[in-house]
Inverse folding.
């Protein structure tokens, strides 16, 4: 019986230590500098890569990165639960007003750019489409490739799930805020879009530039015409950073006022040559 | 004295362990209801009866559950149609025809099939089965209800075989002997005597298999294309209730109409599985009483 009590005490002691350990850890880190980044799921991979490299360079600094979506991140910044908000869209008028009412001066930093490539099967003869044509395909106004100068074949429309930031961006800038066709197949991940486009000859999908480049010959990235009369522009690091490619977006950090201390050194690191190299490595486009 | 105390303590532990399940089910119902309830006031329950599920929109958000319910029903129905012949024939073979060696060989594999994680089956379906379905039926995409149903049938078959086999081997030997004495062949005995006698057990097995199918998420999310359209065609894309919750819950703004609507989806799903379980329970009980 006594032995059992001893065992119980040992188990409880271990549990208590396990619970307490992270608390000690975070105290320790606070001495060096502790930055929290919250927001866009699109940017989580990029920001975590930055954080990892930053922590490797700076002993005692700790950066914690969480997703949750751009809107969640902005709300967290305004409520004071995060130091930095990562957002794949700009802050809305309503959000700026809310910040103002709280007496906060929010500062925007463009830390990277992201291009969205429209992809089709390599056996599809279509090479270019205008933004308006892509919009009409995704809203369901066009359902056959012959409506955009292709063969008489039905269009298989592939999209991301509605929880994706890319879904919303595409809806806003390509569909011009109209609804997606209900016939669009919503794929749970970018990789499944790439796979389906590479096997289904008459499919069309959209993916982040990095994923499109990585897919290589499996898919064909279309040239996109801003207007019917303009020249098509193919998505690449160059055309996205110059602004010539029309389906592109800046990726932001938002901070309360001008950043100071650990927050400043983290953002400075992201904007540095090394930080921007990480941007390219993770499939996005550098801003400098 | 001491042993009596011990007995009491052990009894208490077991009672509380058993009642935890009841408590948790009650809490889940309460939680779902609590999160879903505000939807009834704004925007109103009539929203749920719409024909369109379009929760993210700049124009007008729609939360019609019809396409999701028909999607789940279509996939479940197809999967059941595919799984039943395989499951029942398999069970008959294993319990009535197979030699001892064959039985020892088949059973572990069937159990193994039941143990494959659904995400693995989904991945297999996306890479291997989707192109096959597309080519065989001459479709322009393999992301269809049928593809999902085939994979779900694969997952339901082990459940159906295991429980049906149980029911079939529990048929009293005297039935079969009587049948043989009347001059019936072995095949006639199986189909005219044994299977009908075990029918309620087989039906319960099918119901439990359906329960597994309707609640399955990962497989359908990966291969059915998830387009929320109301359709009865196996060659169209469907969006099931489970896939909708899994895909959208992650990013939905907390407390929004969309968030509450997803809880309604959960409630409808829970009621449907609850009914299925209730029916199969009743049928199974009837079969046990007969024994």
């Amino acid at each position: 019986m006594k032995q059992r009590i001893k065992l119980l005490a040992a188990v409880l002691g271990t549990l208590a230590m396990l619970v307490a350990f992270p608390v000690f850890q975070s105290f320790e880190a606070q001495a060096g500098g502790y930055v929290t980044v919250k927001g866009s799921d699109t940017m989580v991979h990029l920001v975590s890569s930055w954080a990892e490299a930053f922590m490797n360079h700076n002993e005692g600094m700790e950066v914690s990165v969480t997703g949750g979506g751009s809107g969640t991140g902005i709300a967290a910044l305004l409520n004071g639960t995060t130091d930095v908000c990562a957002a794949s869209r700009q802050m809305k008028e309503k959000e700026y007003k809310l910040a103002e009412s709280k007496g906060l001066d929010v500062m925007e930093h463009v830390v990277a750019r992201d291009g969205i490539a429209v992809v089709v099967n390599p056996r599809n003869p279509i090479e270019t489409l205008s933004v308006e044509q892509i919009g009409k395909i995704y809203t369901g106004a066009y359902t056959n490739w012959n409506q955009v100068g292709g063969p008489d074949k039905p269009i298989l429309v592939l999209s991301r799930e509605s929880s994706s930031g890319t879904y919303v961006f595409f809806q806003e800038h390509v569909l011009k805020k109209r609804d997606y066709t209900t016939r669009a197949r919503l794929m749970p991940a970018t990789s499944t879009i790439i796979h389906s486009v590479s096997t289904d000859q008459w499919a069309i999908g959209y993916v982040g530039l990095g994923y499109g480049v990585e897919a290589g010959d499996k898919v064909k990235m279309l040239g996109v015409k801003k207007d019917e009369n303009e020249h098509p522009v193919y998505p690449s690091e160059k055309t996205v950073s110059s602004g010539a490619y029309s389906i592109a977006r800046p990726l932001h950090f938002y901070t309360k006022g001008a950043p100071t201390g650990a927050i400043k050194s983290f953002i400075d690191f992201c904007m540095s040559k090394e930080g921007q190299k990480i941007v390219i490595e993770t499939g996005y486009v550098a801003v400098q | 004295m001491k042993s009596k105390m011990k007995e009491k303590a052990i009894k208490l532990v077991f009672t509380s362990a058993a009642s935890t399940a009841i408590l948790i089910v009650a809490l889940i119902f309460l939680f779902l209801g609590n999160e879903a309830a505000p939807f009834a006031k704004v925007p109103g329950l009539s929203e749920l009866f719409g024909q369109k599920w379009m929760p993210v929109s700049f124009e007008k958000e729609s939360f019609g559950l019809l396409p999701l319910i028909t999607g789940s029903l279509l996939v479940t129905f197809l999967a059941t149609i595919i799984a039943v012949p395989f499951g029942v024939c398999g069970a008959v073979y294993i319990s009535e025809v197979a030699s001892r060696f064959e039985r020892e060989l088949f059973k572990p594999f069937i159990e193994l099939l039941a143990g494959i994680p659904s995400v693995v089956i989904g991945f297999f379906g996306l890479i291997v089965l989707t192109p096959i379905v597309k080519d065989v039926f001459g479709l322009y995409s393999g992301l269809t209800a049928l593809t999902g149903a085939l994979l779900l049938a694969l997952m339901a078959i082990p459940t159906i075989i295991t429980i049906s086999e149980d029911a079939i081997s529990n048929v009293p030997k005297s039935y079969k002997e009587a049948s043989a004495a009347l001059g019936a062949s072995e095949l006639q005995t199986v189909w005219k005597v044994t299977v009908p006698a075990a029918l309620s057990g087989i039906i319960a097995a099918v119901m439990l298999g359906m329960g597994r199918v309707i609640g399955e998420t990962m497989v359908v999310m990966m291969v059915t294309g998830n387009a929320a359209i109301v359709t009865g065609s196996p060659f169209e894309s469907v969006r099931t209730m489970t896939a909708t919750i899994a895909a959208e819950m992650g990013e939905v703004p907390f407390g929004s109409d969309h968030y509450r609507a997803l809880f309604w989806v959960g409630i409808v799903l829970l009621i449907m599985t609850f009914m299925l379980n209730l029916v199969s329970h009743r049928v199974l009980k009837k079969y046990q009483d007969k024994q």
User: Anything to note?
Assistant: Chain A touches chain B at residues 41, 68-69, 71-72, 153-154, 156, 161-164, 167-168, 171-172, 177-180, 182-188, 192, 195-196, 199-203 (CB under 8 Å). Confidence is low (pLDDT under 50) at residues 19-31 of chain A. The first helix of chain A runs from residue 2 to 32.
